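User: Hey, quick favor. My workstation is busy. Could you predict this chain's structure for me?
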Amino acid sequence: MNHIIQTSDLTMRFRGCDALRGVTLNVDEGTVFALLGENGAGKTTLIRILTGFQMPTSGTCRVMNLDPAKDALEIRRRAGYVSDAPALYDWMGVGEIGWFAGTLYDKHFLPRYQESIRRYEIPEDRKIRHLSKGQRAKVALSLSLAHDPELLILDEPTSGLDPKVRRDFLESMIDRAASGRTVFLSSHQMAEVERVADVIAILHDGIVRVCEPLDTLKDSVIEVAVSLEDPLVVLPALPEPAEVLGEASYGRQRSMVIRHYDSGMHDLLASRVGVTGVSERTLSLEEIFIAFTGKSPPREAIDRAEAAVEIEGGVV
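Assistant: No problem, here it is.
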């Protein structure tokens, strides 16, 4: 499969801040690729580099086999882009801005834009300045999709949209990927991402912590709850390739989020002197994200673990 986006060891340094620290990513054609990260993780900086608005400090990247440093205008012509706060000409009407943008593309742009605006029920004669935040987002989405881009880059695109429109829009991203188009999505809405993404990358403190197909990622990370006779019981170190992403203790309960856990490790923990029960639970994408960004399992996770151990007959 061809890569529509390739980055290699990208770094971006600002005064007093390393926004990106060696980011390497490959985005395949015909996929919905989701980039997750906290505020300040470097997501928007990466998008600005991909679209040629920001030159990296070091490293290389190619978008649609073009160099953003040299071919920024061609990339912007062939790609669609929507930010969480789209910049639109407030003095224009909804119809006018479609006509204006249409002069930059082929004859199919304006009819597609007008159809999208009608579907969103936005009057063409209304001024941009009089639109709500959600309506502005719909206009921006319509403009970004009207030229049927081979790559659609979305930075928090559903901000301000009502739940129904948000759901319909995200489902349309699956259809785009099925037709061979590519969607590069940056979002904080974990439940939405989990429903539509093919591949997940988690960016934390300027570093890509993980980049895997969603199903592979969810299968490889699990929460393990261990019930102990005494809180001071020391658990054995897990063999490679296991990686403990987060750990928390509450009394005689210990919870660990572990990557690459297997049944042999279950037996290793269960056979430890002082261990009275071991249970496992699959995690949601949001819980996996929290684990990779360096936070301990929440108290609720321990409560669920205690309940699971009680059901299995363990001592709590």
